[in-house]
User: Fold these one by one.
Assistant:
Number 1:
Amino acid sequence: MTVPERHSFQVILERDEAGYFVAECLTFRACYAQGKTCAEVLANIRDVLELSARQVKEGGRILPHRSEIIGIERIEVTL
């Protein structure tokens, strides 16, 4: 029996115009989830991450390099 591997991924959380929470993981291309609450979006993105990682591993590929989020900056522009 194989012992399951544990992996951790950083996730960016935002709130959209409609009030929904949106989560994005930069490690996988197009890895997004949304939910009405923070708890819901975290559960949803966990499901997406598990599916994405499983597909990579089952395809015989190595998980992509995990990007490290080092900060978020607010930039203002004048139009």
Number 2:
Amino acid sequence: MANPLDDYLMAKKADQGILPGMGRFMGGMGSRTLGNLRTGAEEAIGSGAVGLAATGLGVAALKVYRAIGKRKDFKSMMEHNPDLQEMQSRDPSKFNAHYNSLRTLVPSYAQDPIISGSLMRSMSFNPEHAGSILTQSMETRSKHAPSLSMDMGPAKFQTKL
């Protein structure tokens, strides 16, 4: 059975190379190179952090921009459809949830005050069918704008079960 200490010492001798002191020379060089790598890594991490912060600011700015657009579109819808104010006052959280769903699923419809007003009116009169109203809107949009359709074309890739 081999002694782990003997194995370690044999490996250490082998690392020293053919010339005595070569291992020390290479070890010193390795530590200098490692120091340079460490400095380079610290610089890369620093610049990465700056890039990440800039990306974070960009994401935050985009969220603010979208929120401003959403507020503007909502106000425009309410101005063009004064009857919606009564519907909103009856159940504000449900009304706002309907608008958020509309905005998420069909953003171009939410931006148009006439279309969004019509859909919000339908969802407010029939809140139990709000989901199907939005689904039908999405299907209608897909039919009239083929480039936005979810259809993948002919069923070439169908698999049989």
Number 3:
Amino acid sequence: MPMQPTPVQFPGAVPRAVLSTRQIVWGLFFDPAILFFLQRERWWRGFRVMAAFALVTGLALGGVRFPTVWTAATEWSSWLGREVGTIHLTHGELAWDRPKSLPYTTRHRGWRLDFVPAQTVFVPPLKKGPETRGVWISPNRVNAWYLMAGDSPMVLPVLANHKIWGVLDADSLWPAGLRLSGEDLPRMVRDGLIVALPFFLIQQAVGVLLQVFFYTALFAFIPVFLRGAGSGGGFGSSFAFYCFASVPPLIVAGVYSGLGLPFLEYDTVFVLGFVVYLFLAARGVRREQAEPDE
């Protein structure tokens, strides 16, 4: 349960008004007790500090993860190129050299590929085998899928109704008659990854920011809701407090996620670190208050 920030005053403390952003950030990492001085800061200042660290952490995570994406995509595209031989579009429909006999299913490194005839109705995959992800390919539709918790599939339409990702016109990106050999497929994927790099980094940064913002706003709302909107400084004060409190945990979660350690996702590590950090801040308050005045 998130704690309700309680006003405290330490002997000999520096007044809040003179604390710069640099001093606040330093204190958050090396003197967690400073957190209780910041509950009356403007909510936008806390959000600005939190957002800056979340975006930088997300960009760093994207930079760490991208080489893995690059290696997996190029290796996977090389294998796919050897499987299909040549790929081309005919009247807006996908065609390939192999396999000739459909339906056909093959597997590679935990991926399941299903080649099916045209006009085959796509059925969301359930637990058909050990694979938890795959691609379902027909001449007029390509779907990527991923089994989440509880065997519920997430389906992403890659190609449908002559549209790529539902937005880009397939014929304009892939002119009729253009035959892409299996050897060319990895090069095409590499070129696409280079173009997609800025968008990948932005997606990672925004993803971290949204996760941190969600939990921060939730933690800030709980004490206000339980004690009434008029308690203390209201939601703005609580939100500022938890924005500042989220900075060290989001860095810890970013390091954990960047190392690729198993078992825990970014948001799980963030929440655990958030709770631990609040206890550290509270312990720092008790230690400061127990020290005699000089």
Number 4:
Amino acid sequence: MPTLPSRVRPLLDVVVAPPAAFAAVEARPSLGVPLLVWGGSAAALLVLQASLLAPALRLDPLFADLPANAAPSSWVLGLVMALLAPLGILLRGVALGSVLHAVATVAGGRLHWRQCLSLVLHLEAIFLLESACTVLVLGLDRPSNWEEVRAVHLRAGLDLFWQPHSAALAAAAATVNVFTLWWGALLACGLARLAALPLRLSLALVTPLWAISVALRLFLHPR
């Protein structure tokens, strides 16, 4: 029977040894462990980020006039985030895993839906690493108002080389960053391994899904 370290190891291998992680997903497509580990990590990062943004939030006109006892206590906020974070990861995993399984099957791939879902859940590691870097930047800058919050950016994408005047283009340049590209590349490599497809075909299948995911991310998380 697999031990806890052997179940957690593939989650770390996503970052340091992707082929080993893909092999583990192929042999034993775990769902509960990545959901619990990444869901808990996401909740902790959200709570930490909320605490770092608290000074700016207290100055926001929408909240400044509220009585002090109207704000939810930290443990209530933590509980809500701890419940919503795994749910959000699960919903994204089910949606993307289902589409990934469908397109791979149409292309002649041989894999189970559970493997697709497990792959997507494991790859949440990349976005959590991005969130951790964002929290680190917030912790170093310590913004005290919303103007300073808007000025804080994790510059890791096209915004390193191109800073357009349009707010929409600037947000798009920031969204196409090293983390989204890294995630897309791992998704294509993982699908090629699990579905026994040529890497070029896997890239062709994943690229439209990657583009849609980035567009949704830009729409749902405006900067």
